[in-house]
Request: fold
Amino acid sequence: MNWEQLLQRVYDDVAPSLGEGKVADYIPALACADPHAFALSVATLDGAHYGVGLTRTSFSIQSISKVFALKMALSLEGVELWQRVGREPSGTPFNSIVQLEREGGVPRNPFINAGALIVTDALVTRCGQVDAVSRLIALLHQLSGSSRVACDPEVAASERTWGDRNRSLAYFMRSFGVLKNAPEIVLDAYFRQCSITMTTHELAQAGLFLANDGVDPLHGGRVAAHSEVNRINALMLTCGHYDMSGDFAWRVGLPGKSGVGGGILAIVPGLASVAVWSPALNAAGNSLVGTLALERLSERGGLNLF
Amino acid sequence: MNWEQLLQRVYDDVAPSLGEGKVADYIPALACADPHAFALSVATLDGAHYGVGLTRTSFSIQSISKVFALKMALSLEGVELWQRVGREPSGTPFNSIVQLEREGGVPRNPFINAGALIVTDALVTRCGQVDAVSRLIALLHQLSGSSRVACDPEVAASERTWGDRNRSLAYFMRSFGVLKNAPEIVLDAYFRQCSITMTTHELAQAGLFLANDGVDPLHGGRVAAHSEVNRINALMLTCGHYDMSGDFAWRVGLPGKSGVGGGILAIVPGLASVAVWSPALNAAGNSLVGTLALERLSERGGLNLF
Amino acid sequence: MNWEQLLQRVYDDVAPSLGEGKVADYIPALACADPHAFALSVATLDGAHYGVGLTRTSFSIQSISKVFALKMALSLEGVELWQRVGREPSGTPFNSIVQLEREGGVPRNPFINAGALIVTDALVTRCGQVDAVSRLIALLHQLSGSSRVACDPEVAASERTWGDRNRSLAYFMRSFGVLKNAPEIVLDAYFRQCSITMTTHELAQAGLFLANDGVDPLHGGRVAAHSEVNRINALMLTCGHYDMSGDFAWRVGLPGKSGVGGGILAIVPGLASVAVWSPALNAAGNSLVGTLALERLSERGGLNLF
Amino acid sequence: MNWEQLLQRVYDDVAPSLGEGKVADYIPALACADPHAFALSVATLDGAHYGVGLTRTSFSIQSISKVFALKMALSLEGVELWQRVGREPSGTPFNSIVQLEREGGVPRNPFINAGALIVTDALVTRCGQVDAVSRLIALLHQLSGSSRVACDPEVAASERTWGDRNRSLAYFMRSFGVLKNAPEIVLDAYFRQCSITMTTHELAQAGLFLANDGVDPLHGGRVAAHSEVNRINALMLTCGHYDMSGDFAWRVGLPGKSGVGGGILAIVPGLASVAVWSPALNAAGNSLVGTLALERLSERGGLNLF
Reply:
C-alpha cells in the first residue's frame, strides 16, 4: 500500500470540512484549541511511519488514555476487574449516571467515564495514587518510544476544577462499594491521566501493540496476552465512541477510541495503528473531522474489518 | 486449515455443556425443542462445507431472519431506511420499549424487535404483505441453494397467539408515525418471517455472501454492495446479541446474529460463514452452547477479527 | 358563602386569560372546540346549584370518566383491583410506558391511561363489553339526575382511529398478563367511556357524592363506602393531573381530576363539588383556564384543604 | 374529642405490630435504636397536649427537618426557590439520581434528598454555613417551646462518614449549576440538620403552626403566610413519603413527613399536629408502626381530610 499517497488523499477529502463541529469548552484549557488543526499518523508493523498535518504537535489525549489504563489494569488485576465493570455498550452518553443506579453502581464498560474511574481505582489500589499515573506514563514512554509523553498540569488542574460530574459518578459508585479508594484520590489520578499529551506520531506508535497481537514492535517483548489484545480491540469497537460507537463501526469498521481533545486511536489488526487529531467535535463528543478522516482512510485503503 | 478436525475438537469441547441453559418457552412450538440438540456447519469461500452434529435438521431461525430482511430492505429502500431505525447498540433487552419512548418511536437498531418490525414494515411497503415474506424466502432459496427453506405455519400461528409484546411495540411506533403500515399486517409478515426453518448447513451457505464481499458464491452475481456488507457485518458485531452483544464480541470476535430458536450465524470476512444450533439459551436469550462453540472455534481456529 | 358573587369574581379573574393554551388536537372531534369557551358550576350539599358561563353546554369529559369508572370497579372488585394497579403518583406523562416495563406491567395508578385501562378491564370482566359502559352511564344518570349523559359516537370513533398509543399500552399489559380481556374489547369500552359528554352542571352534581361521604345527595342512598370516598379523593389529589398533580395540589389544594376535553372536577369534602370547563390546555394536558379558575375559587372561597 | 381515649385505643391497635419492620442501619448511630420503641403525641390548637408512649424521649428527626428548612427557605428566598426545585411527586426512592439527569439537575421536590440539599443550599447562601443550621434550631426552639432541641454530633459525624450517595447528588447538581455553594459545605449543614433530635412532644408542638394557618400558637405571631402553609401541607401530602406518598394519602389522608429515624409529623389543618415515633421501617423507609398508628388515628378520630 502506498501510505503516503493514501494519507494525502484522505487529507484532501477532509480539508474542506476542517472547522466544522465544536471544540470542547467544558474546561478552559481545551477551549483554546484551534478548530482547524489536523494531524493523521500511521505506524505499520514493519516499523514505518507515515503522516500528514501537525503530527509532531502534542494534544490532550483525554479518554484515549483509557485504552492504556485498561491494558495496565488487566495485567495487574486480570479477570477480577470484570467484577466491577461490564463489557457492554451503554447506549448512553459518556457521563450518564442513570444506568449506574439501575445496575447497582457497576458501570457498563471501561470506556465510559464511570467505568474508566473503576479502572483507575484498580490502578490506584495496585500502584498507589502517584505511581498509578507515573507507571501509565512509563508504559506510554516504552510503547511510543518517546519520553516526551507527560501530564499537562494546567489541563489536570482545569479538569479538577470542573470535575463535579465525575466527582458525582465516583461518590455514587463509592456509595455502592464498587469504587474501593477514596473518590478524591481516584479522581486526582484520573484527572492527571486524562491530561496526558501526545502527538499523533507518538500515539500511533503506542497503539501498535494492539495491531501486533500484544507484542511491542519497538522492543520485541510481549506486553499483552493474545486474548487481551482481542478483547481490548473488541471493546474499542463496541464501546469506543460512547453513544456513537455503532455509527463508528458502521462507517469505519475498525476498533477505535476517541478523546474529547479531538484525538482518535484506531487499530488495523495485523497491519497498522492510526492516530488522528482534529479538535472540533460532533454532537456525541468525538472528533468530527477525525472520524471523517478514518472513514475515508478505511474506504480508500480497504481497511474495514468487515 | 483442517476444518474437519477443528469442528470435531470444538464439538468435544462443548459436548459436556449440552443441556445447560433453558429452551425458549414463550411459545409452545419452540418449547418442545431438545435441549441437547447440536449442529455446527461451516461454509467456506472455496465452496466446501464442513459440519458436525444435526446439520441436516431444520430449526426455527427466528431473529437470524433479521439479517436477511435487513439486506432486502437496504436493497429496496437504501439510506431512507435509516430515517426510521438507528444503528446503535441499545444496551437493553430485545423487547424493551423504554428507549422507544425517549427517542420518539425510533428504535435503536434493526436487530432488536422494534427495529426489525420497521425493517419488515419497509418490506411490506415495497413488496406487499404476502410478497414481503415470499421474496425473503426466495432470497434464502437462492443464497442457500436449497428450496426446502420455508415458513413453519405452526410456529407462525404460535407467535401470533403469544405476540402481544410485539403488538405493543408495533402500535407504539405506529402512534409516532414511524411504522407506516397497519400493525397487524406488519406483525403477520414478521411472525411468518420469524418462523422460517433452516438447517445449519443451509444457513451457513446462505450467510456466505457476507464473507464474500456481497457476491453470491453459488451463482457468482453480486447480491449486496461492498459497503452494505461491511455495514451489515458491523451491525451484527455491535448489535447482534441484544444486551450481550459486547460479551459476544469480547468472547468470539466475529459478527454474529442469534435467534431464540437456538441458532447463531457468524461471519468470518474473507473466509467462511458459520452456523451453529443448540436450543438451550443463556439469560440474554442467546444459545448457550452455540455461543460457547463459536468462542472455541474462534480461539482454536484463530478466527477472531481483533 | 355567597356563591353567586364568588363565581362571578372568579370569572372576572380568569376572563382575560381565555384563549391561552392549546385545544387538544390529537383527534379531530376535539380539535374543533372553541378555545374561549368557559363554564363553571358548583353543586352544594344543601342541594343548591350555582354557575357561570356555558354550564348547560355538553363537552367530552374524557379522563374525568376515570373517577366514576374507578368508583364502579371498587364496588365490583373491592381490594382485588389493587393487585393490578398501584396508588402512587407516576411522575410521568399520562401515556408513558416506561414505568410499566420496569414494574412488570402494573401501572402506577388508576388515573394514568394504563391504569384506567385496567379499571375498564375489570368492568368488562364483571359486566361484559357493552354493559361496562352502559352501566357506567346509568350510574352517571343516577348521580347527575340527568338522562342526557351519553357517549358521543363520533368522539369514540375518532379515539378508536387515533388510539394506537393506548393500544400499545393495552397489548403491553396483556403481554404481562395484567390485562385480563382481549385488548380490542377493553379499548372499545375505554374509548366509549372517554367519549361521554356532560355539562358542568351535570358533572358538578354527579361528583357531589364524593363531598358527601359517599351518600347520593339526590336520592339519599349510599353509593360508596366512607373509606372508598376518602381514598378516591386522596387519589384525585395525588394523581389527578398526571405530571402536574403536585402543582395542582400546590395551587388549588383540592382533589381534582382533569380531562383532555378541558374539563376538571374538583371536590370540597363536606361542602361542594365543582366542575369547570375550558378547552385550551396547558403543557401537561390540563385545562389552563380551568386550573386558574379553581385556583382563584379556592383562594377567594377559602376552600383549600390545607 | 376524647384524645386521651383515642390515643390509648390507637396504641392498643398497633402494639401487636411493634418490632415489625427494620431499623435503619445505613449509619451505626441509628442502627442501635430499639425497634419496639413507640411514642405518639398530639398538640391541639387550644394549647392542649396528649400522648402515649415515650413522648419525652428524643430521637433523630432526620428528614422531618426538611419541613422546617423549607419553611425557612421560603421566608428567605420566596418564589425564587422554585427555579431550582420542583413541586411534583417523583415516583422514585428518596435518593434516586435518575430523574436529576433527565431534568437538568433540578430535583422534583424539596422532600427527596436532592431537593432538600437545594433547600439547605439556599439557607447556606442566605445565612452562611454555620448559621444555616443554628437559625433552623432557633426556629425549632421557638416553635416547640423547648430549648433542648439540638444536633446530635455523633449522628452528624456518622452521616458524614456514610454520606457518599448524598455527596454524589450534591456534586451532580453542582455540575449543572443548580447547587450554588461548594458541595462539602452544603453537605456539612445538611448532615447537621438531619441529626437534630426532638421528642414527639416537641415535634407535635413545633408543627402546630401548620395546622394554625401559619400563626405560632405559643407566641401568637405569624411565622408563615397563609398561602405558604397551604403549600407546605400540599407538598407534605403529595411528596412527604417518597415513593409511598400515594399510599400514605390513601391510608391516612393527612399531610405528613417521615424521617428515617422512625418519626412522622402529620398535620390536621385547623385542629391539631401529630408526631409519632417508632424506629422500625417499611420497605420505602417510613416508620411501619408509625404509619399504622396514623392510619388508625385518622380512622378512629375521623381526621381524614378527604
